[in-house]
Amino acid sequence: MDLGIAGKVALVSGGSRGVGRKAAELFAADGCKVAVVARGKEALDEAVAAIRANGGEAIGVAADLTVEADVLRAVAETTEAFGPPDIVVSNVHGPGPASFDDLTDENLVDAFRRMTISLVYIARACLPHMKEQGWGRLVNVGSGAAKEPPAGLRHMLANCTRAAAVALNKSMANELGKFGITVNTVATGWIGTERMHEYVNKVAAERSIAPEQVLGTVTADIPAGRVGRPEEEASLVVYLASDLGGYINGEFINVDGGSHRSAF
Q: Which fold does the domain 9-189+231-254 belong to in CATH?
């Protein structure tokens, strides 16, 4: 299947691990020039080397996309190497666990900056080029918890600020569609990334049980009976960024094995 994105410039944040890394690899395999953006240089260098080893074009940019100066530098370095980004995948690390009693002005502002303001920063930097050429793709790797916060998990900071990000993306889609720009959210469920396994191990240690027991409880609630593979979510990210995905706009799409309870 020709996705029509060969030669496009894709900037993928959080691209050194998990779903972000797999998306970066798939973009490169489809002929995109890829800027992999992440905070940790060692993992970043490894991701870029893997793409190049498979014949892809990629650069790495060590940057924190919750800091506007870093965003501007990442876009500038991408533009210098390949040209301005045509495709942007926003995949920023979420805030830590918190219940209501843990909320403070400071951690709420930090969470909002991570989950929502970071999207404004990267869009503000990349939209002028996208508007000028009449084509652009903004894909946010979010979470199904933005719509259906799970009980029993202390993720109040992430849940409420991710929901704000979804509303931002939908509002942007309404404004930007006339320029040939789409804005969509991919809602992550339980995906078998390194970060997910770190979380499972942490919960297992807190409860003094085996990680397999934690995973068993998780998968028992998933109709598919398993956690997802990073490439299963990453392939949707790439499709939404393609020419063929051009009529999908303003959507919130779950990738969760059917665990989302609502029919809509």
A: Rossmann fold (3.40.50)
> First and final CA of the chain: distance in angstroms?
29
| Phi, psi of 246, rounded to the nearest 5 degrees | -70, -15
Q: What is the pLDDT of residues 197-210, one digit of tens each?
A: 998 998 889 899 99
Pull the structure tokens for residue 234. 């990453």
What is the C-alpha to C-alpha distance for residues 24 and 18, in angstroms, rounded to an integer? 10
Q: For helices 118-133 and 68-82, what crossing angle results, to 10°? A: 30
Element (H, E) at 137: strand 136-143
**Tell me, what amino acid is at 49?**
A
- CA–CA separation, 36 and 21 (whole Å): 8
Tokens of 194: 């390194």
Give the full edge-to-edge strand order of the sheet including 33-38. Answer: 57-62, 33-38, 9-13, 87-90, 136-143, 181-188, 252-255
Whether 171 shows a pLDDT value over 80: the answer reads: yes
Per the prediction, the chain carries an average pLDDT of 95
Q: Indicate the domain borders of the chain.
A: 9-189+231-254, 192-227
Rounded CA gap, 75 and 78, in Å?
Answer: 5
- Measured CA angle at 146 (ends 145, 148), to 5 deg: 55
Beta-sheet pairing, 136-143 with 87-90? parallel
Global pTM reads 0.95
pLDDT tens, residue by residue, 101-134: 999 999 999 999 999 999 999 999 999 999 999 9
